[in-house]
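User: I'm curious what two different proteins look like when written out as structure tokens. Can you demonstrate?

Assistant: Sure. I'll show them one after the other, since each token string lines up with its own sequence. Here's the first protein:
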Amino acid sequence: MPIRLRFQLHGTRHSRIFHLVAIDQRVRRDGKPAELLGIYNPRLQLGQPEKSMEWSVDRIKYWLSVGATPTKSVAKFLEIGRIIKPDTRWHPRMSTPP
């Protein structure tokens, strides 16, 4: 069963929330995930200086170690959070030929 790390879309039209999940890649975007790994709310709350992401680093590293592949957008977030290094095989720029 090929597992992917990707975002699920939740919330109403103008207040979206994204869940970072480990899910079978053949399941639709909002299907039942194998595991919820984090939550990203792109809207700033009052008094909040920057956007934040809550995630479980140990579980993300586990899923990457057993062969899960992150999507390009998830790979960018994982690189910003220093969970994966820029020179890994999941880096978005590595998929384009030189």
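Here's a second, unrelated protein for contrast:
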Amino acid sequence: MASRSLSEEDLSCPVCCDIFVNPVLLSCSHSFCSSCIQRVWENQTFKVCPVCRTTSSNDRPPVNLALRNLCESFQQERRPKSGSGSGVCRDHNEKLKLFCLDDQQLVCLVCRDSRKHANHRFCPVDEAVTDNKEILKSSLERLQEELRTSVNREQNLCKTAEDIKFHAQCIETQIKEEFEKLHQLLHDEEAARITALREEEEKRSQMMKKKIEETSKQISSLTITIRDIEEQMKAEDVSFLQRTLRPHCKEPNIFQIQTSVQV
């Protein structure tokens, strides 16, 4: 029988140590009763597996349908042995010793001979359990293989995501370094232009200062000359002529005065 290949220990939850009830499957491939794992995770910030301590990627793990079916079959198989009164035909109050292959249901010996199951195929219950458990075992193995493939794919996707993030960080660092170089070049160019501008400003300021000094001297000279001429013009006629016509006179001759303004 299938119960010989799958013991109660194989179908027991690692937390409560009883047969799985509504088992769920974590990403690390370990299974637990739904209520047990939620009770363990109740005060945990990070949802970790109680067996391998791997952090779960889903705080609401999916139901392990294959394992649940195995547990239900196991429970049904051992109920008659426990004397609990199960495994009795509701119609004939006889033990369900046969399995109808056509209707896929348990039947008693009276059901087998009834019109309802005429010409149907039957087999002993233990054989039906063995056959169904083999089917479930194949399904379980297939699901476990799919789970391993999904876990590997998830790991590869996580690695790819990390590679993308690392590559983006490298590119970001490179961009920052390039722009820092550009900023330095612009800063150096700015400093060079400002220095050249200030040198040009100093040169032109000195030149203008020199011209201003020359113009100031000229203005001073012209002011003195104008004042002297105005004084001469106020003199008496004879004195005026004597002063303006005497060649030996140190004062400026009104007819010899020449003025020029340079800017």
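A detail about the second structure: The two ends are 125 Å apart (CA to CA).
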